[in-house]
């Protein structure tokens, strides 16, 4: 994959980048995505360990990974072991907002079907929270860059969530992503509505400041 085709900041290159990165991720063996998820989680855990009090009080938003995404289960395993409340994201189309439902302690994230527009049946009666009420939120992405810009799947749901959080002028990091090293590109085309995450963890490095 040549990063040069993504050098210009225009809508066409953003579309091209999304198509290319989707194919790159589809071609990744499941074992590699699982191993990368484990190593990225190992990079993230020391940072979150410094915020255990806030995590245990407010919880964390975490999604179930798609077959073409880095595996989120290793991070979820640590959260379960550390007894940190976990919340599953879902998008409310009428309200144009994202909410989160508590995940029971005995349910792993991989057991939940990834569906941003439908609450899993098992979570329909659990506690509901807004994004601003959580300590951290895991944000998916097809690609990122060193400035923590993010390329999503084009729906803009998480950009609106991040924008709503930023509007509250919170002083601490809140949003983060885990990614393969090959998902970190030299630059990501950015539109006015695109929002960067606060932190990115890959199997080999942390991008925070």
UniProtKB/TrEMBL annotation:
Keywords noted in UniProt: ATP-binding, Ligase, Magnesium, Metal-binding, Nucleotide-binding
Keyword match Magnesium: yes
InterPro entries: FTHF_cligase (IPR002698), FTHF_cligase-like_sf (IPR024185), NagB/RpiA_transferase-like (IPR037171)
Gene3D superfamilies: NagB/RpiA/CoA transferase-like
Catalytic activity: (6S)-5-formyl-5,6,7,8-tetrahydrofolate + ATP = (6R)-5,10-methenyltetrahydrofolate + ADP + phosphate
Enzyme class label: ligase
EC number: 6.3.3.2
Matches recorded under PANTHER family: 5-FORMYLTETRAHYDROFOLATE CYCLO-LIGASE (PTHR23407:SF1), ATPASE INHIBITOR/5-FORMYLTETRAHYDROFOLATE CYCLO-LIGASE (PTHR23407)
Family, per entry: Belongs to the 5-formyltetrahydrofolate cyclo-ligase family.
Record protein name field: 5-formyltetrahydrofolate cyclo-ligase
Lineage of the species this protein comes from: Bacteria, Bacillati, Bacillota, Clostridia, Eubacteriales
